[in-house]
Specification:
Largest sheet: 9 strands, mixed
CATH topology of the largest domain: TIM Barrel
Structural class: alpha/beta
CATH superfamily of the largest domain: Aldolase class I
Mean pLDDT: 95
CATH architecture of the largest domain: Alpha-Beta Barrel
Shape: globular
Strand content: 15-25%
Strand order of the largest sheet: 5-1-2-6-7-8-9-10-11
Low-confidence stretches: none
Length: about 300
């Protein structure tokens, strides 16, 4: 699964949503899944991309003058012809409003670690640390392992968030000894639906969770299953009850439910990949509190954290 050095999307400090305390989150670019509702669509591909925010554009056309490839045009509904674009980013440098941006940058393990360690005072006072997210950090197992080891040396507690689609032996060897917790996403239990909505079978994911549940228990490492709530896809009673049954069969007693965020559609459009779900009303709205409560009730017998 390792694919050399990753591109980093963002290193976001002062996060309160990705583990205990105040955390710094490292977003890796690239994912083996292709979820139809991905909240971070900019993290799907491993390569760098161009993003264009129409609302931020002031119409000065400085970018058009800077582009030597003729990849930008007001006549093009996408504005950027990504087949012509060679990612020279001269347009980004010319843009005064930040409407154009490069998505994904190369960073060394040491550069990432130094950026994280700027927040050490916050970690110490709040019980926080660093969270590896994405995309999917386990696509870059060697880089991830070296980064976790480097942070461990600096006394930084770490969490890895994963979609679960990784090579289990390599994960247990390279990652598990160096991490304090694993947050493991379970999206859809039915394999046919999982293939349709996420692009791959869930067989490896379920096998990995079951195996990891036992291994984390033996090592005293927290393993937290998480279910992203997506209207009409994951947030159905049948799917949630099936996931709850699976978790209980593994001996798990807790689960986290991740509330749906419709803002991903704007991100997808900025990348020139408007979602085919854009016309679905439920996908464009925050989930009502009543629906979230119904989802909680469907996980009967599990502690929701």
């Amino acid at each position: 699964m390792s694919r050399g050095e990753p591109l980093i999307l963002e290193i976001k400090g002062n996060s309160l949503d990705d583990g205990p305390g105040i955390r710094t989150v490292v977003f890796f670019k690239g994912c083996p899944l292709d979820c139809s509702w991905c909240h971070n669509p900019e993290s799907k591909r491993t390569s760098a991309e161009m993003s264009f925010d129409q609302e931020a554009c002031v119409g000065c056309d400085a970018c058009l003058d800077a582009c030597g490839r003729g990849a930008l045009s007001r006549e093009d509904a996408r504005f950027i012809d990504r087949e012509k674009c060679d990612m020279c980013v001269e347009c980004v440098e010319a843009c005064p409003s930040g409407a154009l941006s490069r998505v994904g940058r190369t960073m060394s393990v040491e550069e990432v670690a130094r950026e994280i360690e700027k927040d050490l005072p916050f970690f110490r006072t709040s019980g926080g640390g660093a969270t590896m997210s994405g995309g999917e950090p386990t696509m870059f197992m060697d880089f991830l392992s070296r980064l976790l080891a480097r942070l461990e040396e600096g006394g930084v507690k770490t969490i890895v968030e994963t979609c679960g689609h990784f090579e289990a032996d390599e994960f247990e060897r390279e990652v598990l000894p160096r991490v304090d917790a694993v947050y493991f996403d379970l999206k859809i239990l039915d394999d046919v639906v999982h293939r349709r909505e996420c692009g791959v079978s869930n067989a490896r994911i379920l096998e990995n969770f079951e195996r990891l549940h036992g291994e984390c228990g033996r090592r005293g490492i927290e393993l937290l299953p998480r279910v992203p709530l997506v209207p009409g896809v994951t947030a159905t009673r049948a799917n949630l009850e099936a996931i709850a049954d699976f978790l209980r069969s593994c001996g798990a007693s807790r689960v986290a439910l991740l509330e749906y965020n419709p803002l991903w559609m704007e991100k997808s459009a900025r990348l020139g990949r408007p979602s085919p779900r854009a016309g679905e009303l439920a996908m464009n709205s925050w989930m009502p509190r009543s629906e979230i409560e119904a989802c909680r009730h469907a996980m009967d017998g599990l502690e929701i954290v």
